[in-house]
Hints:
Shape: globular
Largest sheet: 6 strands, antiparallel
Radius of gyration: 21 Å
Bound molecules: adenosine-5'-diphosphate, magnesium ion
Oligomer: single chain
Distance between the termini: 42 Å
Helix content: 25-40%
CATH class of one domain: Alpha Beta
Amino acid sequence: MKALVVGSGGREHALAWGISRSPNLSKLFIAPGNGGTDRLGENVSIPADDVTALLEFAGKESVDLTVIGPEAPLVEGVVDRFREAGRACFGPAQAAARLEGSKVFAKMFMKRHGIPTADFEVFDNADAACAYVREKGAPLVIKADGLAAGKGVFVAESVQDAESAIDEIMVRKAFGESGRTLLIEERLVGREVSVHAICSVERAVMFPPAQDHKRVYDGDKGPNTGGMGAYAPVPFVTATQHEEIFESIIMKTLKGMRRDGTPYTGVLYAGLMMTDSGPKVLEFNVRFGDPETQVLLPMLDGDLLDLLTEAAEGRIPKDVRFYGDRCAATVVMASDGYPGLYEKGAVISGLADTLDDNRVVFHAGTVLDGDKVITSGGRVLAVTAWGPSLSEAIGHAYEGVDRIRFDGAFYRKDIGRKVL
Ligand SMILES: Nc1ncnc2c1ncn2[C@@H]1O[C@H](COP(=O)(O)OP(=O)(O)O)[C@@H](O)[C@H]1O
Ligand SMILES: [Mg+2]
């Protein structure tokens, strides 16, 4: 089989790594890929959001399965375009991708189908939103409706913070059209976990829960990032809660989507808050998380290419398994200054030295320059390791981090520490 992975981050390197291990793979393309994916297949210089060029390429090369990494092309309808052309593409159709593309759509959907989530109100007028905030009082969470690259959510501790968030989203239009409508939510309290399920209309298989580390500095300090590290499974999620999440969130969502005439196929990634009154959905994403994918794929005891192909074709094999005795951790190495301004072009050394049977380096912001690998992004790479316990997985990942050098490298030193 020929496969095409679309995207250029650590998530896509992990997907390419998983797919490249399949005995059924004959050729792998990554568009546009990075300095790491280049070793697993052929990088093709097509941007992830150029749907027309991707479809043309898939046709020309007779690609059997295309796997979309990032959300933007999904929300733009890439899967519909591939399906119309008779090409298998793993991901949700445009109408189903609205679960991520519009937070208001997702909240109304959850309300309609009784899926546990924070109470909320929707506003398309800043004055009305501010009046509501003054009446309700803080804390509250203010969210721009549309895609905002992870920057459109404000957890407001005071009425004044809430009003300035409304001003930023709606009056100053910091997120453009994404802020025409906004949500005001009750603030939930608890610990956050990420759950990922591979879904195909009626069926789903759920990965072990994972936990991301969003803030840039140790101790969850500093601004939010795309994610600085992750681990799985999450020890504080019990088997009973796992079952509850599967039934009352994942399966209920699939059922609701079928009822609404927008059946769901692809990855459903629910960001959850484990509250005193049970798990509640903070948001849905319609693609794999980054860096969660880097820890989830090493947990899969099976053939990723087969699983994604079957799901894209409406079938999920019944016997999908995860390594029950395996834990995984990933530590992101970033460029100094990220998530703000940072330098590019530093030479990375020690990469080959870091690989072993239980450890791999997933590249994100890297490019090849001759035989050198150089930095080209804020999140540069994710050192991923696994072992029989979380502490061994985390220790092995950090041992890998110690071997890698580039100018301006920094990383969090406390990935997973809270649960050890
Ligand atoms: N209702 C809520 N209560 C408490 N915290 C929230 C709530 N909604 C969002 N958050 C916090 O804000 C973060 C980002 O919100 P989320 O809805 O996941 O949006 P996005 O990932 O698109 O930025 C969450 O990971 C969580 O930490
Ligand atoms: Mg989120």
